[in-house]
Amino acid sequence: MKKWVIPIIVGLVVIVGIAYRIAVVKGQENKKSEGVEAIQMREGFPVEVVPVQVGPFEVWREIPGKVEGYRQALVSTPVTARVATIHYQVGDEVKKDVPIIILDESDPKDFSRSKLLRSVYEESRKEYERYKVLSESGGISENALEKVRLAMESAKTNLEQADSNVQLTSPVSGTLMALYARVGERAERDRTLAVVSAVDQLRVVAAVSDHDVAELKPGQAVRLVTAPGKEHRGKVERVSLGANPDTGLFDLEMMLDNEERDLRIGTYVNVGIRILSENQATAVDSRARFRDSDGKECVFQAEGDIARKVAVRVVAENDDYSFLEGLNPAWPVVLSGQGRLKDGVKLRIEKASEK
Predict the structure, then answer these.
(1) Are 318 and 272 spatial neighbours (Cβ–Cβ below 8 Å)?
(2) What is the DSSP string of 71-107?
(3) Which residue, 59, 94, 141, 169, is most buried by CB atoms nearer than 10 A?
(4) Residues 13-71 pLDDT 10s
(5) pLDDT digits (tens, 9 = 90+) for 251-279
(6) φ, ψ at 287 (rounded to 5°)
(7) What span, in angstroms and rounded, lies between the C-alpha atoms of 148 and 131?
(8) Cα–Cα distance for residue pair 184/166, rounded to 1 Å
(9) pLDDT tens digit string along 210-236?
(10) Cα–Cα dist 307/287, whole Å
(11) Angle, CA of 338, 343 and 346, to the nearest 5°
(12) How many other C-beta atoms are found inside a 10 Å radius of the C-beta of residue 144?
């Protein structure tokens, strides 16, 4: 045999050996792959399931807004005048129609009329007292007494109207929230000098889009969480029927309780509005939902150890859960592993979550 034949034979043997080894390894891999699928079909696909929640279901929408007084009054001066006296400080309780600020009667000249009218009223009151005594003794007629009484009431009305320019009051009782005046300074006409607000209840005003306003209506529950375990409750008071022509947004007003007076007027907050409240809803963890190849909303439920593909309708959803129609409440829902499932395959439930 020629010498060059031997290396060729050795090379062919090596090549055949390598090819055989590759074929063996590939065959083993295919056998292993087929074995896993066969095992899962026989023993069940591993999945995690959660129970269907049956009971109350709520959906809340968060709306940003500004805190204002629920009953609030701006106290302003009707004329330009010097501030003579301030009876209250910020934080004091103020009663309705009780003077908060007194303006100098001698500044401007218009206030001299108040002094004259006070003198007229005092004279008419004294005259009425004299006529009343005479009437009781029969010295004058009832008609004469009535004319004097009407003259006194007219003088009193004129004096009160003039005093309203001197004594600045609030039309509502509440807390003096702000004071923009100092004794001795000159206040311009129509300038706001004080703000009085009832703070046991506050108002939150907001502006919402046409998309958000469709879910809102008066009477809906409102809540504001200011700290863990600290919550203010209230309701939607008003939803505008038309958009503001300047902003294109819809005005919204909400009322909140503030019994502890920890909310401050003028602050910006995020208020939750309950847009849905269902007493008996079938809800599941939203992660259980998926869309099939036809685009339908579906979940897999476990009938014992068999997977059932169930088409559902999404009624509503909140941060974690979905309110679904079409569920069987007795069957748990597959939360993970549904990507490998088909209707009717066997399941191996590895973990049952109680979230």
Answers:
(1) no
(2) EEEEEE-SS-EEEEEE---TT-EE-TT--SEEE-TTS
(3) 94
(4) 556 566 666 655 565 555 455 555 665 566 778 889 999 999 999 999 999 999 988 88
(5) 999 999 988 888 888 899 999 999 999 99
(6) -70, -15
(7) 8
(8) 14
(9) 999 999 999 999 999 988 888 999 999
(10) 17
(11) 75
(12) 13
Per the CB < 8 A criterion, the answer to whether 142 and 55 are in contact is: no
Provide the β-strand partners of residue 273.
Answer: 61, 222
CA–CA dist 334, 325 (Å, integer): 16
Is this structure's pTM higher than 0.90? Answer: no
Pairing of strands 221-227, 268-285: antiparallel
The answer to whether 94 touches 100, Cβ cutoff 8 Å, is: yes
Lowest mean pLDDT among 129-143, 148-162, 207-221, 307-321: 148-162
Which token pair is 304? Answer: 């014992």
Q: Are 231 and 223 in contact (CB under 8 A)?
A: yes
Separation between Cα atoms, residue 169 and residue 82, nearest integer Å? 16
